[in-house]
Amino acid sequence: MESSPPSPRSPTPLVHRKDIIARIKHPKKGFPQKDRLQDRKVYGQSFTGKEGVDWFIKNKVVNSREDATEMGNQLLEEGVFVCLNKKKAMFEDSTIMIYRFLDLETFVLDWLLHEKQAIIHKIQSPQTGFHRKNRTRLFTKHDDCFVGSEAVTWMIQNTPISSRKGAVSFGNSLLEEGIFCHVDDTRNGFQDANELYRFASKPRRIPRKPKGFHEDDTTDVPFVVLFNLKFPIPLVHCIVAQLNPRDVLNFLLVSREFSIVTLKYLRNFSLYYFNRRVFGIPVRLTPNDRLELWMGVHSHWEYFYGRYSEEIRELVRDGVPAKFRRKVWQEMLSSTEMLKKNPDMYRFCLEKFDEKNEYSIRKDVGRTFPTHPDFRGSESSGQVRLFNVLKAFAAFNHEIMYCQGINFMAAVLLTVMSEEEAFWALIQLMKIHHYDHIYSKGLPGLVQLAGILNLLVEEYLPEISDFFAMEGLKPDIVANKWFLTLFGCALPIDIVTSIWDRFLVDSWEVTLRVALSLLEISQDIILNSKFENVFSMFDNPPVLVTAESIATVSRRYQISQVIK
What we know:
Layout: H1 14-24, E1 34-38, E2 41-48, H2 49-58, H3 65-77, E3 81-83, E4 98-101, H4 104-124, E5 133-137, E6 140-147, H5 148-158, H6 164-176, E7 180-182, E8 196-199, E9 224-228, E10 235-239, H7 245-255, H8 260-279, H9 287-299, H10 301-307, H11 309-318, H12 325-333, H13 335-341, H14 345-351, H15 358-365, H16 381-396, H17 406-414, H18 419-432, H19 435-439, H20 444-460, H21 462-469, H22 476-485, H23 493-506, H24 508-521, H25 523-527, H26 531-537, H27 547-554, H28 560-563
Antiparallel strand pairs: 1-2, 2-4, 3-4, 5-6, 6-8, 7-8, 9-10
Helix pairs in contact: 2-3, 5-6, 8-9, 9-10, 10-11, 11-23, 13-18, 14-16, 15-16, 16-17, 16-18, 17-18, 20-21, 20-22, 23-24, 24-27
C-alpha cells in the first residue's frame, strides 16, 4: 500500500512566533547560552543548532527535529538570531553551528561608538578640526584653545548635526566624556557662546553605553545611525536619539517587508522625527528625500500616525504630494471608515434626492472651476460627478441640504478622490471642522468668522482696515466667499489643495491666517486701486499670490488666542 505524501508544512503564525521568540530568549528557561571556544575563536553567550533543536523538542513546540530545524530557519531569516561561524548559513541541527541572539541595541551602540570616534578624530585634527590658537581672557593667557560658538558652527558645517542646539547637545556629551574641557575647570556645560575650551591631554574612556541610553528611552544620543547586518535585512536606518532600536525591529517583523525601500522610508521619517521632536526645527530634506519619506508614511500610515501623530501632522502642514493626497485626506477626515460602515448610503441618497434643489445645483455646477479640464463642459465627467455628490449630500443633510459654496468644496475633493469618497469626505469635513455651523440658517459661523477677521485686520493690517473704513465697510466683505468655499472660488486649484492640507490639521486658524496673507500680499495693489475694483481682484489673483508666499506669510500670524 502506497503511503500518501506528507502535507506541506504551513508557516508558524506570527502571533505564536512572537510567544516562541519570548520563550527562547528567556535567560533561564530559554536556549542554553554560554561562552564557547571553536577553531581557536571565542564566541560569547551563544548556543548551538543542536541545543536549539533539543529545546524545541523538549518544550513541545514541535514534534520532530525536522520541524524544529525549519522553525529555526524561519527565526534566522527574521533576524531573531544570527550565525557566528559561517556566513549566509542555514539553521542546522549540529553542534558545529553556533548562533547568537541579535541584540539590535548592541549593533547600534557598536556603530555609534565607531562613528563617534571618527568625528572626534576629525574635531581634534589641527588642519581640519576646531580652530585652536592662543587666546587671552580676563588678563589670563590660554594656550591652544577654541571658542564654543566657533565649535558649534564647525559641527553644523562638518557633521550630520543640523542645528546649533544639536551641536551644543553633542558638545556636552564630549565634555562629559572628557574629550575637552573648559579653560576654567570649575565651569560645567558646553555653551554656544564666547567661552574658551581646550582638548584634554588624556580624555576619559568613552563609556560603552551612553548615559541615559535605555531600552525604552533613547533620547541622549544625537546621531543618525546606519548599520549593516549580516542577515536578510541588508540595511537598517533608524534614529538613535528618539526612535527606539527595538521599535525598528518590531516594525520590520510586523510589516514582514524586509526590503531596502521600506527601510529607507523608516530612515527618512526617523530623521524628520528626530529634528522635529528634539530640536524643534524642520529637517533639510531634498525633494527626493521628501517624496521617499511620504512614500513610507503613505505605505504604513497606521504605524506612523499611531506612534508619531504630531510629526505626521507637521508633515501634512508642510504639504502633501499630489499622488498621496487622496489617502491622507481620507485618513485625516476618517471618511474611509464611514464609507466602510455605510457601503450603500451613497446610492440610497442619490435615489432619495428631492428634485426641488436640482435647478440651483445644476446652475452652480456649471460655474464651478470652468477652466479646469475635468469640469469643462456640461457633459464633462467632473460636472456629472459633482452633480451626483451634491445631490447625495442634499439628501443626506436635511438641515443644510444645498447652499451656494458647497459646490466648490465638493469639486476640490473630486480632484483628489472618487465620487463616493468625496461624498463621505464632504460629510466629515462639515462635521469635524464645524462647517455645518457656517451653512446653518442665518450663517452664524460665517458671521462669527468675519468678525474675528475684522479684528485681526485692524490689528495686523491697519492700512487696509482704514481703506475699507473710508467706504463704511469691513474687510470681511471680500473674504466671505473665501470662507464659504474654503478658498475654492478665489484661487487656482493647486494653491487651494495646499491650503486644505493645512486646514485639515489646524482647521479655522488656517482659514484666518490665509485670509490675512492674501490681504497682506495684495496690500499695495489694493491700496492703489479703485474701491470698486477690489471685489473682482481675487477672481484673478495677483501673480504674487502663490502657495509658497501664502505659507510663508501665514506663519507670521499668531492668532490662536484670538480664536479662543
